[in-house]
Sequence to fold (99 residues):
Amino acid sequence: RGDCTVDLPSDWEGRWHLIAGVCDDSGLRVYIDGVRCGATPLEKGVHLYGGENSWMIGGNDEFPGQRLFKGRLRRPRIFQDALSDEEIRAIYQKETNNP
Fold:
């Protein structure tokens, strides 16, 4: 479907970070700590439900043994509908108690 690669923050290692990935009709977006860090448009819309591949946390069913996340997860969540920039920022602020 596509790739959206972003740079990690300089304070990445040894700290908690909120990572959010969004896929909707406009494309792929990646957020770190409530900030959109990258976006990739899609050439055509993608229907993500009912396909041959399964949802996975920390891996990719389409590429077994590749694209693996190595780290600790706390309360992973998958949302039915794509979240907006504001909704992701609000989740980050709530999780970190930042105004």
DSSP finds one helix and three strands in the chain. The chain has a mean pLDDT of 84.
